[in-house]
Every structure is written in structure tokens, then in C-alpha cells.
Design goal:
By secondary structure, the chain is of the alpha/beta class. About 50% of the residues lie in helices and about 10% in strands.
Length: about 280
């Protein structure tokens, strides 16, 4: 991804090194948590773990912070234009909070092991930059555009909040419960994947950001965080009824749908069968 030398966002809060609680347990616990909460989960529903000291910031991590800020700025400009030209509205920019170990949000206390998340109550995206390493080494999805996909997906949840979709889904999930509630969650997550693809399309049109292999990196990340793949790794079996984010194939297909179409009108995951 071509990102060096471009402006970063003014909406980044750097809380790295401020301490807090972090999750205990090994890789299995990490993956199980990611299955439930990765990319858009509610941290207030997660049981807290024990405390460890946060890692020290490094030059490499600071470069990742700069990269994250540039991608956020790209999402701001792309979605501002989309809201003005297609949605007849004004885009309110989210805040992105960098943290290490654990963080407090308006949705509750959150741990790094949860992965990145969006909190609708404070309209903020939260990410521990160490997740990029986990994405590469534990989930097998390397590349800077895989990282950009993660940010764009979380911003997709912010778009859902601005459009009133998140509130509608939450109310419906509370009313139905069980498998149907899980299906609604899957549809919401797949729409955020599609919105990430829309952003990639618009960013390419606006700044020619893509390099060879970038789209494949994003698709690799979408596949890596599919419920079926994570469940297989964590528990050795796949239980579709418990999916909350969608299968690897679904996540790749909806990102691709948004990328090909370049418009949020192509992202209605709430009608019909989501592939």
C-alpha cells in the first residue's frame, strides 16, 4: 500500500504505555476471544483477565501508528465524500484509540486479546498495534493492506452507527436471541466487510494507493478471521449455528463485493442469503 508521506488523521488518541489490565491465558484463549469479539464486538460482555505490564513503544510500532493514522485519514475523506454524494448526509469522523495491554472505553474495559473493536457509545475504534503482529504470525495474514482492512472494517461499524443500522440490529438481536441473534450479528459483520471493500475502491480512485498483491492481502485477512477457520483452530470443530462474524468465504466475498461496486448500496447483507 502506498501510504508514506501522506497526511495522518487528527482523530488519533495515543494511550499506549498508560497501563491497565491485560488478558491471561494462551493462544487458545486469544483465538476463542477473537471468535466472539474480533472486529466489532462489545467489550462489556467479556470477562476480565489478570494484569501484565504493557510493552514499551518501539520505532517499528511508532511506524505502525503512523500507518494507522494515514489509513484512518483515508477513511475519513472517502466516507465524507460518500455521505455527501450518495447518502445525503454529513459524515462524523470517529476517534481511533491506540492502546497497549488494556483500555477503558464507554463500552467497558477491553483487553488486547480481544483484537480491534468499535465502541458505538463513544464512536471510537480501539486497537493495540500488537494485533498486527498476531494477524501476521498467529492468523497467517501478513501485509500492510491486511492491516488496512482491519481498520476499514472497524470504521465500517462506525458507518453503521451513523446510519442507525447498529441500533436496529442490536434491538432485534435482543428481541430474538439464540441462533437468529447470531445470524443478525453475522449479517452486520459482513456488511462492515463490504464497507471496507467500498473504502478500498474509493481510496484507489482518489489516491492510487494499491500495489500488486494488496487486494489479496485484504482477502487473506478476511479469510483468516472467518468463524469457521477460527473455530477449527480453537476447538477442532466448526459450529455454524454459533457463528457471529461469518465464514471465511463469506467475509472474502462481501469485501470483494464492496471493492468491485465501490458503493454502500451494494452492501445490503440483511436481505436474502448472505452467500
Amino acid at each position: 500500500m502506498r501510504w508514506q508521506g501522506r497526511r495522518g488523521s487528527r482523530n488519533v488518541q495515543d494511550r499506549r504505555g498508560m497501563g491497565g489490565l491485560a488478558a491471561g491465558g494462551g493462544l487458545g484463549a486469544v483465538i476463542l476471544t477473537i471468535v466472539v469479539l474480533l472486529m466489532g464486538g462489545d467489550p462489556s460482555e467479556v470477562i476480565q483477565g489478570g494484569g501484565v505490564a504493557p510493552p514499551q513503544s518501539s520505532a517499528a510500532e511508532d511506524s505502525l501508528a503512523e500507518f494507522t493514522s494515514v489509513v484512518l485519514a483515508d477513511t475519513e475523506e472517502a466516507w465524507r465524500e460518500i455521505f455527501q454524494s450518495e447518502l445525503n448526509g454529513t459524515y462524523r469522523e470517529p476517534t481511533l484509540v491506540l492502546f497497549s495491554g488494556a483500555v477503558n472505553s464507554a463500552c467497558g474495559s477491553a483487553q488486547s486479546a480481544m483484537g480491534p473493536f468499535y465502541c458505538p457509545l463513544d464512536q471510537s475504534v480501539y486497537i493495540d498495534l500488537g494485533f498486527y503482529r498476531d494477524l501476521r504470525t498467529q492468523l497467517g495474514a501478513p501485509g500492510d493492506f491486511a492491516q488496512a482492512y482491519v481498520i476499514a472494517h472497524e470504521v465500517g461499524h462506525h458507518v453503521q452507527t451513523l446510519l442507525g443500522l447498529s441500533e436496529q440490529v442490536h434491538a432485534r438481536r435482543q428481541a430474538v436471541g439464540g441462533v437468529e441473534a447470531n445470524e443478525l450479528s453475522v449479517r452486520q459483520e459482513l456488511q462492515a466487510d463490504c464497507y471496507a471493500g467500498v473504502w478500498a475502491n474509493r481510496a484507489q480512485q482518489m489516491w492510487q494507493i494499491l500495489e500488486p498483491g494488496d487486494v489479496e492481502e485484504a482477502l487473506g485477512a478476511a479469510s483468516a478471521v472467518g468463524d469457521d477457520r477460527l473455530q477449527k483452530a480453537a476447538q477442532g470443530q466448526i459450529v455454524p449455528e454459533s457463528f457471529t462474524h461469518g465464514s471465511s468465504e463469506q467475509r472474502m466475498q462481501w469485501f470483494n463485493q464492496g471493492f468491485r461496486a465501490g458503493t454502500p448500496t451494494a452492501c445490503n447483507t440483511f436481505e436474502g442469503v448472505p452467500f
